[in-house]
Amino acid sequence: MHQDLSSVSGVVAIVPAAGVGSRMGTDVPKQYLKLNNKTILDITLDKLLKFEPISLVVLVISPQDSHYTKLENIEHKNIVVIEGGEERSNSVHNALRYLFDSGLADDVPVMVHDAARPCITHEDLEKLYQSFQADQQACLLAAPVIDTLQSITPEKQVVNVVERDHLVRAFTPQMARFIDLNNSLGKAIDNRNMVTDEVSALTLSGHPVRVVLGRSDNIKITNTEDLPLAEFYLNKYENS
């Protein structure tokens, strides 16, 4: 059953959370691991729901997910839950198709945010939103690359240093007009282009994308060693 979203004018946030987090080696998907007695996904959803410009959050889960019903905000009036696909891009595409079938207007801003990035701040959300509002150009949060980067061979031998002055670490949220993201991601999937984020699909379709420099502590939890670091950052925000 689809909602009628034809009157929605605020931001729609998509949270792909259908992954199993196999690299973590835990009994539950990583988004359900806990930081400060709250699941990672609960923290992420709470940050988005408290950001006033967001009118709707589309949570994309695995068909086999038996944990999502216990989320603190699962009954929130601004959350819709749908099933995801095999890859992240398929899950986001499922959400976009749901929005299309629900009548979402072409120019509504859509932001996609990783379920496992609970350290996103209100300030960075605001910076991204204001950048998009300025001229409706697609944009993403990112941070400069500060480490030395080495190019290597398949045998793990160093070839040369990679110039980092024009490189950034791509974070989420990533934001674009609904019609641009829907068309770009659909085209990438149809053409079997491997895209690991929304910006990859947008640039493949020729859309300009602006980088909005944000906090470097907007980390994505991927490995077990990321958990105490994320907890440290969250505690730091709370006490500041």
Explain what you see.
Pathway: Isoprenoid biosynthesis; isopentenyl diphosphate biosynthesis via DXP pathway; isopentenyl diphosphate from 1-deoxy-D-xylulose 5-phosphate: step 2/6. The model has no long low-confidence stretch (mean pLDDT 93). Helix 2 (88-101) packs across helix 4 (178-190) and helix 4 crosses helix 5. The protein has a single domain (11-235), classed as Spore Coat Polysaccharide Biosynthesis Protein SpsA, Chain A (Alpha-Beta Complex), CATH 3.90.550. The chain is globular, with a radius of gyration of 18 Å. The strands form 3 sheets. The chain has a 7-stranded mixed β-sheet with strand order 5-4-1-6-10-7-11, with helices on both faces. Strands 2-3 form a two-stranded antiparallel sheet. A two-stranded antiparallel ribbon has the order 8-9. It has 240 residues and is α/β, with parallel strands linked by helices. It has 6 helices and 11 strands.
What attributes characterize this protein structure?
240 residues, alpha/beta, Spore Coat Polysaccharide Biosynthesis Protein SpsA, Chain A, 7-stranded mixed β-sheet, two-stranded antiparallel sheet, isoprene biosynthesis, IspD/TarI, nucleotidyltransferase
Task: Give a quick precis of the structure.
This protein has 240 residues and is of the alpha/beta class. 30% of the residues lie in helices and 25% in strands.
Number of helices: 6
Sheet of most strands: 7 strands, mixed
Shape: globular
Q: What's the architecture in CATH terms?
A: Alpha-Beta Complex
Topology:
Blueprint lengths: L10 E7 L16 E2 L2 E2 H10 L4 E8 L17 E5 L4 H14 L7 E4 L9 H14 L2 E7 L4 E4 L5 E5 L5 E10 H13 L7 H7 L4 E5 L12 H14 L1
Parallel strand pairs: 1-4, 1-6, 4-5, 7-11
Antiparallel strand pairs: 2-3, 6-10, 7-10, 8-9
